Write the structure tokens for this entry.
Amino acid sequence: MSLPSPQPQSAISFDEEVDREVESRIAISGRVTIDSSPALRALLFRKLESSQRRIVLNFEGVSYVDTSGLAVLVEALKAARSRGKTLRLTGLRDRPRYLLEAIGVLKLFEDTQEKADL
């Protein structure tokens, strides 16, 4: 009897553009899952400790977000607000957008429909 092969870990990548005084823009690509959400969390909390007042996450390249990814976003939003900072999501579409809308958290973020420059 053979066991099924383990699924490959979800890949996620980040492309960052920083205005040192005001804003950090991060384009995310891939799937935000239980395997990749710790990397997103680490990046977000590192950014929350920086001098930028705004963090903009571009989700155009994200095809899937699971509940662990959602938890990271909500945790980061709470931490940003407690520090007087802003966390904004752009480029949300398809399943990731539907998840945030269905659960009712999309309205908590400063969501914009504009295409991000990243």
